[in-house]
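note to self: dont lose this again. the chain is below, predicted strucutre after it. 445 aa total, dont forget to put it in the shared folder this time
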Amino acid sequence: MTEQEAIAAPGSEQDAELRFEDYFREGSAPTEALLWWQLERNEPLLNALRALCHGPAALVRLRTWVFMELMALPDSRVPRDALNRHFHVLREEALELVLKRLREADLLAWDAGNQQYSVTPLAQRVMGVLSPLTQAVEQDSDLAALLANVAGAHQMGTLDPAQLHHLQAQLSRLYDEFADAIASGSEFHLRRARQRFGRALKLVERASEVLRAVIEQAQTDGNARLERLARELGLAQARLLAMASQFNRALQQVDRQRVTLGSTGITTTDVRRWLQGVHFLENLSLGALSRPVHPVLVAQHELLDSTEAEFERDRPAPPQQEALPVPQAAPDGELAVMSLPPEMDLMQALLSRWSEAGEVEQDLAPAVLGGSYARASYRAQLLPLLGDPQAQHLAGATGDMARQPWRVQWSAEQGEVDDEHIKWMSRGVLRATSAEHEEREDQDQ
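---
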């Protein structure tokens, strides 16, 4: 008995076609409902879908394939010869059967004078319904499609309250699905649901700006119903976002309940994951019962001999308590303190002697040269400290060096020097700060 025969009214003929009103208790359709009015207004679209998708599965797939290939053609009018060339892989009778069904469903218009086919506006609407068939099947594609419809309709100015209703219903279904996963307590169920929750969370967060724009636009247009639906959708979105903490607590509870098998580091989760990867669990018991149980019979005297040997066996002596070692005096040591090279003290002594002698300008060579190349390089590196404003506030030899009343003045000229380790050196002089001060006063006057 078919579905139509099972719900047929008593006394009616089985081969009679029922009206839509005959399926209701009162014998009248709910004409006051908004959805009923919308379906009735879109009756041609329903008839086109019925003509396209009615019949065996293979024939439905063939019609859908031919229809979507026709919609992808770039020409607005297609001659019959071009169709025959495009669908050369189809048999002629099969192509003619599909084209006849599309013409009867008003999805194709045939111009007998020019021998051309053209696509009707109804076919464009049907293509909008069937467009998800051309997209890759991905996880959470249902939520992504609903969010894309709402965002696109808002941008085009064609947003309908029914689209918000469908999106809110999908968010409620996702909330119930995630709540069931949390209540199950299953680690694997929780982790699968957590992955889908993360993907849904990204989609919902991306749609937050669109939802805010919908509310603002509804307030501007004075559409109270659309604003109310958008705010309800925002509450459903917020309730879904709040589940992140619940997932974290549930996973932490599962982690606390996980058991480690001995000192191997293998947990019950690892064992379960391994068992899930075994295709035939019954094969694990193969050979386990192939050998029968061999009982071992022991006489009383054998038990007594074993007991005596156990008592007479040499056992290690238990550890004895030992006293702490006596205190010992620490050996004398020396505290090594890092000191600066003596070159800085020698240079400061030289500069002090020049100051006491009243010298105002001296050549660089006596202050730099002497000893080895390394010592001369170190003395040359000490010269920029003279008059350094930052180092003058330091304590110790570095600060004393910076506070010396001498300033270095290098020259662009270079030449040979009389030294055992240095052959070539830049020219320069050391000038007392009192001499520099007098030169500035002379220049100012």
